[in-house]
Design brief:
The chain has 159 residues and is mainly beta. Helix content is 0%, strand content 55%. The protein is built from no helices and 16 strands. The strands form 3 sheets. Strands 8, 9, 10, 11, 12, 13, 14, 15 and 16 form a 9-stranded mixed β-sheet that branches. It has a 4-stranded antiparallel β-sheet with strand order 3-2-6-7, with no helix packed on it. Strand 11 and strand 12 form a beta hairpin.
């Protein structure tokens, strides 16, 4: 999946040639969305972790130099502990996985209910379980901003 990248600068103009290249200069051009003269939004296709060049153009010919975009490792979930708990909520659940980078702003979703995720290590996150209906099975997901970065496991509450 692609990643939305907000580029902040100056002199952006809404033209049909406004666009970005993410990666080597020979990378394909993708159109950018004009937000203001100081901000545009580009799309970066899936890529292995690491830093790549980011080139921006308002005319389709001249591109910026020196901008860098860093792809982070994908977040993966292996296990949740405990995997069952009280429907009253309020207790901590540790999510074990990978790619929990401290630069990410992660959130735990218990069904549709949000809980802040506290990154402990690159392989562990702690979430607080919310109150749910008795004996309800709730899907736990770890997300960043508006994008789902990992599907988790189901958690069943008990009395």
């Amino acid at each position: 999946t692609a990643t939305v990248v907000t580029v902040t600068g100056s002199g952006f103009v809404e033209t049909e040639h406004l666009g970005c290249k993410v990666g080597p200069f020979w990378s394909p051009w993708t159109p950018a969305m004009f937000v203001s003269s100081s901000q545009i939004v580009c799309t970066a296709e899936k890529h292995s972790p690491g830093k790549v060049d980011l080139h921006v153009s308002v005319n389709g010919v001249d591109y910026t130099e020196g901008l860098v975009f860093e792809y982070l490792a994908d977040v993966g979930v292996r296990a949740i502990v405990p995997s069952t708990g009280s429907s009253a909520g309020g207790y901590n659940i540790t999510v074990h996985g990978s790619g929990f980078d401290s630069r990410l702003s992660l959130v735990c979703l218990f069904g549709a209910q949000r809980s802040n995720a506290r990154i402990v290590t690159s392989s562990a996150v702690i979430c607080t379980a919310p109150k749910v209906q008795s004996d309800q099975i709730v899907k736990l997901r770890v997300v960043t901003e508006a994008h789902t970065v990992s599907a988790g496991e189901d958690r069943k509450s008990t009395l």
